[in-house]
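Submission sheet (multi-component)
Chains listed below:
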Amino acid sequence: MSATTIAYFPQLKREARAEWVFRRLTIASAALVLILLAGVLAALCYGGWPALKAFKFGFLTREIWNPVTDQFGALAALYGTVVTSAIAMLIAVPLAFGIAVFLTETCPLWLRGPIASGIELLAAVPSIVFGIWGLFVLAPVLQHSVQPWLIDTFGDLPWIGKLFRGPPYGIGLTTAGLVLAIMVLPFITSVMREVFLATPRSLKEAAYGLGATQWEVIWNVVLPNSRAGIIGGIMLGLGRALGETMAVTFVVGNAHRISTSLLAPGTTISASIANEFTEAVGTLYTSSLIALGLLLFVLTFTIIAAARLLLLQIERRGARI
Amino acid sequence: MSNVLSGLMVIAATATLAQAVAGSALADDISGAGATFPYPIYAKWAEAYKQQTGIGLNYQSIGSGGGIKQIEAGTVTFGASDKPLEPADLKQNGLVQWPMIIGGVVPVVNIPGVKPGDLVLDGPTIAAIYMGDISRWNDAAIQKLNPKLALPKLDIAPVYRSDGSGTNFLFTNYLSKVSPGFSQKIGANTSVQWPVGIGAKGNEGVANQTAQTSGAISYVEYAYVKQTGMTYARLLNREGKYVTPDAEAFQAAAANADWAKAEGYFLILTDQSGAESWPITGASFILMHSDSKDAHTAAALKFFDWAYRTGQKMAEDLDYVPLPDKVAKQVEKTWQDSLKVDGKPAWPAK
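Outcome: structure written.
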């Protein structure tokens, strides 16, 4: 639109001004998020500084967490966070894939709605409810039937036997992983379902027309088409699993120890903060807990950044074909 | 991103939420913040006091650490802590502290065939269990204390409180006093690094884990034992007497303690002398500024005075142990000597 046109139509000028204000508002909204993010990071760095200064790199590599002697290291919490999230992903990703395939390909139409809403409702359950359910319902079942079986069956095997030893406490890293798996399932499933649905119908019909079976269509047409979306969904779930606090605190066993057994009690970064922050007295103790928060921030950020890079690579490769 | 934040929010939430809520309270209310252990009785007292006088109390149970931070910052009239501050810390921050209410910690077990009160334990044995040195219930050390009890060859599963708490502090403080090994390797605090066992959250988490695990041992607040009928153990106290956890035993420990000699009431009631004293007893403390500008100081002292005088029955109903009269009188003398508002003595309040 040229200057002369505006001069002829004054209302255009008004509209252009409104447009300008609107654009600035959207920029401000986006900037606010970045400012908040920077603010959180700055606050965590500031709060965690005394601990990082005192323990230096040792904060990351030491297993000790002793409020009595003021010696703190984040390794046990870091290990627990990664292991519980890994267990959750190992269970939730294949399950979510199965549900998404069923819902988009094989499920009778009238059943799709109820199942999809059921799974989405699962996402609305508060995490404290998962925690209490995990502690009072799931843990006793695991303790009295599942864990003894795991210990008897796998405990004596070489190598992997180490992962299934020790007394069956009912709660521990595995239980936390299981509860997390249920919690992240709806997120991963929803994303996978959306991207599967987005596969062009013509491609699928062409494949069927060539005589492909349902499995071949899913594996060779739907999956390659939705790779980026699947990774996005997994990362969404992983981000949630890493930061989940309340449910994990109830069932992880809360021990600042690294055990080879997956059945043993452990702790996660967010569970440690939730457990100890309220009663923590002393600069170094509180500062170490805040430094744990910083660590979780960095960990999640790194994983999301890595996922973005991966997506970028996939897109580039896709463009070449 | 909200996932990342939710993990971190815990940090901010405890502090800011409490502040926001405290700020929104009525200006006439007394405000306090801190320990969670005495919260039920403070809330009950506050309700009754409000009915009688119209003056409300807004107590935020955000934890002892939070309570200490808030009173240091001067955002509340009083802070509450399960762990007394050391005299040097009090002096440095211009604070005065005194005991308000007493509670006890009781060891509980889950051994097939063992009923409440059957089992007897002593401090060094419990310390050895929590250090991993004793790992079976039929260990000679436990059998020696219980010659008539048939103890099974069952692994001991130690359960501890994972959230920082006054209960943890009293328990570890007692074990540190009676076992040099425990004091050296683990020590006393609201959270410690346990070498063995599993951590459960809150009294209810500990109780549940103990009930679920055959061979478990743990420790919970007395009120919890009484209300749920858990299998408690009796303890051998300092004088070599067997004591059963009940209100009399806790009060005996508080009455036998030499408060007069303890500077700033820095006295932890564990392992006190006296034939009837329960060894894991402790007081919950109130903290106030010695030279305050807070207009609610006098109102708060009046409330505490009322609680000492007329709140005893309510405390007993909730299975807390009121402070012995002798000690309460001494506390009020301390108010007179060391509390000031705007430079004038704050007690007796008009």
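Remark: Chain A touches chain B through 54 residues (CB under 8 Å).
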